[in-house]
Amino acid sequence: MQIVDVSTLWVRVVVTRMRRAGTPLEFVLFPMLHVGEARYYAEIRRRIAECDVVVAEGMPRSAQTALLTAVYRVMRFKRGLVVQNLRLAELDIPLVRPDMTAGQLRESWRRVPWTSRVLMWSLIPVAALLVLLTGTRATMARHAAVDDDTIVDEAGELPPGMEELVVDERDRLLVDALFTLHERRSAEPLRVAVVYGAGHMPAVVGALMKRYRYVPRDAEYVTAFSL
What UniProt keywords are attached to this protein's entry (predicted)? Predict the structure, then answer.
């Protein structure tokens, strides 16, 4: 199942509806790239506004989150690209943010081996500078493709302990929130928008399929940026 589609012409995200037999609730997955064209975010926001509940990521501001987001934030200096800002709180829709709290983030960061923390503090600023000086849309596209098996491949790209912090713990919080929504409100004809980074979607798809037998019913492409 495609989540982010990359070609020689564009990078597109796949907005997917997941449903199950016997209950009307549906999950609408919005895989987010954190840098894209303004019209991409406008279209995603328009579609989210048609949903009944929004489940969205949102880690607290801290030195750690500034570090982890440094590379993509410098891409806003590239022509025609902007950093994600959907202003979801301004929509008249219930908003659930199951992401890590400041306390959870601090505790998880302490559990990361000190060697990995030093490595991240050393290498990410250098990587951000290189992206600023030499990065292109094509460079971004090479690392953008995601499908429902991608998470296995991504694990080896992070220093020891960082996968647990950046991916696994946040996936668990997200999946638990979606399970709770299903258990409490599956009898209602709701459209639940799941607005998270594309790298988290493989876990969402797998968990919903395995636990409650949700399956992808239809999908639409939205262009994040052209090449």
Answer: Membrane, Transmembrane, Transmembrane helix
For residue 199 the two structure tokens come to 């790298």
State the DSSP code for 107: H
Output the DSSP codes for 55-90. Answer: EE--PPP-HHHHHHTHHHHHGGGSTT-EE----GGG
| Spatial distance between the Cα atoms of 94 and 188, rounded to a whole number of angstroms | 15
Can you read off the two tokens belonging to residue 143? Answer: 């690392």
3-state SS class at 227: coil
Q: List the alpha helices (DSSP H) in 62-200.
A: 63-68, 70-74, 102-111, 114-134, 137-142, 150-154, 162-163, 169-185
For residue range 142-190, list pLDDT tens digits in order: 767 777 665 444 444 665 555 565 668 889 999 999 999 999 999 999 9
SS3 assignment, position 94: coil
Q: For residues 195, 44, 26 and 24, what is the CA-based torsion angle, rounded to 10 degrees?
A: 140
Amino acid type, 59 = M
Q: Which single residue is written with the structure tokens 């995601």?
A: 146
Identity of the residue numbered 40: Y
Token pair listed for 55: 């489940």
Phi and psi at residue 170, to the nearest 5°: -70, -35
10 phi, psi to nearest 5 deg: -160, 170
